[in-house]
């Protein structure tokens, strides 16, 4: 890899494509529709591969991400799992809806009212799912009753169409989450409104998605690359990690310490409950105990045994956020370089 | 601010310029040469203001940062405080050195040898400082003896010129650091080599820089914007914080919880020893207790008293890393919008 200037984010397509096929097979076996979240790779080329393998479309978190993905490839169908507010964003959403089948979520009446204003005179109504808080305590209506009330409001709002329920469930709570969603679904049906989609998701619980048969769709992002946090949760192995950071040792100031040229501007400060900021492949004895913006500090109990100028590959704690740090990633197949790829949806926070 | 699409990074030029003038005055009073680190703002327009007020030049951490800054304005003189390795980087460094007075640092013989190869036939020798570890335990030679040995190597290497000593000292250790550097300086002078520059730095200790009169230069980055970490260390007040994140409340799912549309892709996960991910201006009762990529979770003990659609301004824990997240910042003067500014050195990690 001496021809790659470091630090660099490498994506092994062989591994990423294998991860995509493996999880698609799982979803096919369990009759679960897969709608990958593009936040992990932000690359139209990988989204197209996911769709070619059987994904029904993609998930984006922001309107600007959806714009970048739709501009870069054939995304088929897009769900934006976010409360969209403001005339600028809703106007962009409207334009996007004229190009591709689109759905969004809401957990409050203000968002429903604003969306309705923006889509009142649209040719096709906008599909809106109700976001439900089933225990993760981020967004989402708090109770099945509130979910039903919001579903009724959506269905009665001009330009909108109630499309179902969406949740990002807490890990390991399939039974509890199922009860919540089942109750909401029944309450909504009692109003004479169908609930065609129930969308769940999350990488940590990816191999238990079948434990919630009520869900029709599963949204998942990190599975395409995997990362140190998913290895720690025993969801995958390091050999399943498609994204690595290539870094050069720039200093070995003492016997048990070395510095690499990748700091928080590449690896980010995300810990996800772990100790240290990444895993140096082939060196389980090393801890990345400290990051500054442009340095990563590698320490170990014994001799660090690294030389200035040597390269190492690091599996980051959290692959999604690393994808957001650089404008380009280097696509690889094993040790062969395929070329640079622009991260089309990088920095798209609007 | 309803005309600004959120999330947005706002920079109040009135505050930034006041911070620049105030610290320049301090340096002038103590006969300390100021060499601001551009990592905080990454904007040629603010570097030019720093130089106009009296800074002797700028500090960059990477060659690609220096390239972006030199391309964007008149930087006068650039110090790159990094061990530069690899033929691609050294070739870029050589090009840059033909445009502007340039100096770099090294803490090991490998870097010195590679720089010497790259500059052996240069018209002007490259100025190289020795990076010293005076207690921060990142890069830097470990002892004054090693500093002297490396200075001798630099001075005897074709194409290079020993320029002095550089350190990023631990906080509150002025006496200890002074002794370290004094010993190194004397050992180098005993070899008949002058030590024209002694470069120290760091924002947390900025108002104590005069306690180390041995230093000829001071490098400092965060002072231009300040941030929550410097408020916590009592280096400044919130009213001195020039960089804020403008965010919109997108969900108020319960009485004591609200979500904003700025998550770790804007605020970053940097904690710098603090609790929570930022300070909501005017709401000291609120904690930002959790970030996901596109959501920040605001909680408080009492009623959160925020409405969906409302905007808030957040002082981040660490301003430098927030500057690196978006392609543009919004320049302001008080509440007046001056316009968008491209963050020229954003994502420049090479």
Q: How do the strands and helices of this protein lay out in sequence?
A:
The structure is a homodimer of 350-residue chains.
Chain A: E1 8-12, H1 13-29, E2 33-34, H2 44-52, E3 58-60, H3 63-72, E4 78-83, H4 87-97, E5 102-106, H5 109-119, E6 126-132, H6 144-156, E7 160-167, H7 174-190, E8 197-201, E9 217-219, H8 228-232, E10 243-254, E11 257-260, E12 278-280, E13 287-291, E14 296-299, E15 311-316, H9 319-323, E16 328-333, E17 336-342
Parallel strand pairs in A: 1-16, 2-9, 3-4, 4-5, 5-6, 6-7, 7-8, 8-9
Antiparallel strand pairs in A: 1-10, 10-11, 10-15, 11-14, 12-15, 13-14, 16-17
Helix pairs in contact in A: 3-4, 4-5, 6-7
CATH H-level superfamily title of the largest domain in chain A: Alanine racemase
Calculate the mean pLDDT score of chain A and round it: 97
**Contiguous uncertain segments of 5+ residues of chain A:** none
The end-to-end span of chain A amounts to 36 Å
Classify the secondary structure makeup of chain A into a structural class: alpha/beta
User: What is the CATH level 1 assignment of the largest domain in chain A?
Assistant: Alpha Beta
Number of helices of chain A: 9
Question: Would you give the CATH topology of the largest domain in chain A?
Answer: TIM Barrel
Q: What value does the Rg of chain A take, in angstroms?
A: 22 Å
**SSE order of chain A, one letter for each helix or strand:** EHEHEHEHEHEHEHEEHEEEEEEHEE
CATH architecture of the largest domain in chain A: Alpha-Beta Barrel
How much strand content do the residues of chain A show? 25-35%
C-alpha geometry of chain A: elongated
* Number of spatially distinct domains of chain A: 2
Major pleated sheet of chain A: 9 strands, mixed
Largest interface: A-B, 59 and 59 residues
Oligomer: homodimer
């Amino acid at each position: 890899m001496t021809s790659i200037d470091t630090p660099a984010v490498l994506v092994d397509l062989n591994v990423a494509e294998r991860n995509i096929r493996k999880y698609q097979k799982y979803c096919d076996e369990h009759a679960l529709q897969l709608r990958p979240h593009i936040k992990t790779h932000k690359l139209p080329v990988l989204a197209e591969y996911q769709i070619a393998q059987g994904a029904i479309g993609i998930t984006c978190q922001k309107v600007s991400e959806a714009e970048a993905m739709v501009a870069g490839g054939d995304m088929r169908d897009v769900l934006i799992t976010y409360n969209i507010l403001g005339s600028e964003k809703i106007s962009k959403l409207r334009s996007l809806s004229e190009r591709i089948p689109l759905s969004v979520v809401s957990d409050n009446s203000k968002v429903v009212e604003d969306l309705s204003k923006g889509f009142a005179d649209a040719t096709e109504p906008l599909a809106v799912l109700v976001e439900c808080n089933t225990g993760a305590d981020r967004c989402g209506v708090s109770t099945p009753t509130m979910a039903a009330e919001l579903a009724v409001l959506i269905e009665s709002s001009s330009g909108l169409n109630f499309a179902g329920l969406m949740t990002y469930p807490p890990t390991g709570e399939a039974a509890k989450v199922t009860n919540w969603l089942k109750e909401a679904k029944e309450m909504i049906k009692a109003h004479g409104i169908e609930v065609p989609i129930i969308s769940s998701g999350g990488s940590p619980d990816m191999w238990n998605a079948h434990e919630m048969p009520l869900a029709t769709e599963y949204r998942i992002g990190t599975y395409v690359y995997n990362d140190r946090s998913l290895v720690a949760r025993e969801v995958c192995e390091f050999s399943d990690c498609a994204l690595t950071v290539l870094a050069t040792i720039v200093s070995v100031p003492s016997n048990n310490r070395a510095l690499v040229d990748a700091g928080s501007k590449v690896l980010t400060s995300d810990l996800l409950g772990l100790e240290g900021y990444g895993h140096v492949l082939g060196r389980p004895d090393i801890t990345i105990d400290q990051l500054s913006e442009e340095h990563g500090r590698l320490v170990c109990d014994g001799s660090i045994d690294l030389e200035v100028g040597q390269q190492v590959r690091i599996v980051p704690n959290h692959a999604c956020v690393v994808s957001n740090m650089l404008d380009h990633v280097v696509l690889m197949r094993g040790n062969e370089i395929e070329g640079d790829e622009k991260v089309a949806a990088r920095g798209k926070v609007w």
